[in-house]
Each structure stands twice: as structure tokens, then as C-alpha cells.
Design brief:
This protein has 134 residues and is mainly α. The chain has one domain. Helix content is 28%, strand content 3%. It is built from three helices and two strands. The chain has a two-stranded antiparallel ribbon. The longest helix has 19 residues. The radius of gyration is 17 Å and the shape is elongated. The chain starts with 7 loop residues before the first strand and ends in a 22-residue tail after the last helix. Bound molecules: heme C. Heme C binds next to helix 1 and helix 2.
């Protein structure tokens, strides 16, 4: 985390915890108030990797889960969920749009600093707990 994952970075390779990439901070600005009451914070680990599609942001589960079916979404609303789940009527919904724009920035950031499994990736030397720089 921090050197090679696309969600975080370590400023100037300093001994500080990995910081969220600006696009992730922007995503959380909308996600936390809009989604955080029912879903855990986006942590860049485990299941949330499946929610974000940085290759095709518009295909992200994060965007499509609560998007209306006629607009191409899954329209998941749970059964008799209380409070009710708000469905985005279409892609022009301001909350949808804010999340989508942040994911587009995530795509751009990933292309600038590709993951190690992507063409053009550059290893980032990092001090690890084993006491050496790798
Ligand atoms: C009021 C509660 C509530 C809020 C607020 C809410 N959700 Fe959900 N979300 C649910 C429920 C309930 C489900 C499961 C629905 C189902 O399976 O039918 C769900 C499912 C999902 C899923 C699919 C999960 C999976 O494992 O496949 C995603 C992704 C998701 N929500 C993202 C969001 C995002 C992004 C927001 C904010 C824009 C949001 N949710 C806001 C209740 C909520």
C-alpha cells in the first residue's frame, strides 16, 4: 500500500502513512455523506476494489448499483430497506455525476502512475519494515 497501489501514495517517500490519492479524497467527499450511512468507508482493500472500475469508470459497480435500470443500472434497492435506498434516475443526477467525475480522475491518475501489472509501470523504491529499501 502506498508505493504500488493506485489508491494511495506516500508523499516524497517519507515515513508517513499512505495518503489517499486526490481523486480518492474527492470521491470520499461525496461517498462519505451520501453512502456512508449504509456502507463502510472506501478503504482500497478487499471488496471495494470490485466496486471501482478505473479502466471504464462508467462501468463501476459503485455507480451502477443504485442507478435506475432504464439508465443502464442495476437499481439495487434492497427489500423494504429502511431508510429507503435512493435510486439515481439517470446519469445526470448530481451525486452520480460527482462520483463519476472523481472516478474519471482516478482513471487519469492510474494512467500517469500505472500499477505494476500494467505497461509502463515504474517500481517505486520504498522503505519497508524489514529495514531496507526495496
Ligand atoms: C439507505 C441505505 C443505502 C445508502 C444510503 C446507499 N446504499 Fe448502496 N446498498 C444498499 C443496500 C440495501 C444494498 C443491497 C441491495 C440489494 O442487494 O438489493 C446496496 C448495494 C450497493 C452496492 C452493491 C454491493 C455489492 O456487494 O454488490 C453498491 C456498489 C452500493 N450499494 C453503492 C452505494 C453508493 C455508491 C452509495 C452512495 C451514492 C450507496 N450505495 C448508498 C443501501 C444503501
Amino acid at each position: 500500500m502506498g508505493g504500488r497501489d493506485p489508491w494511495h501514495f506516500v508523499p516524497d517517500n517519507k515515513r508517513v502513512p499512505p495518503q489517499p490519492e486526490p481523486w480518492l479524497a474527492e470521491l470520499n467527499k461525496t461517498y462519505t455523506p451520501q453512502c456512508g450511512a449504509c456502507h463502510p468507508p472506501l478503504d482500497g482493500e478487499g471488496r471495494h476494489n470490485r466496486w471501482l472500475n478505473l479502466t471504464r469508470p462508467e462501468s463501476s459497480r459503485l455507480l451502477n448499483a443504485h442507478l435506475a435500470r432504464p439508465a443502464g443500472g442495476m437499481e439495487l434497492a434492497g427489500k423494504d430497506h429502511n431508510p429507503p435506498v435512493r435510486i439515481f434516475p439517470d446519469r445526470s443526477d448530481p451525486v452520480y455525476h460527482a462520483l463519476w467525475q472523481a472516478l474519471e480522475k482516478g482513471k487519469a491518475a492510474l494512467l500517469v502512475r500505472p500499477r505494476m501489472d500494467m505497461p509502463g509501470a515504474v517500481p517505486i523504491p520504498q522503505e519497508r519494515n524489514f529495514g531496507k529499501v526495496y
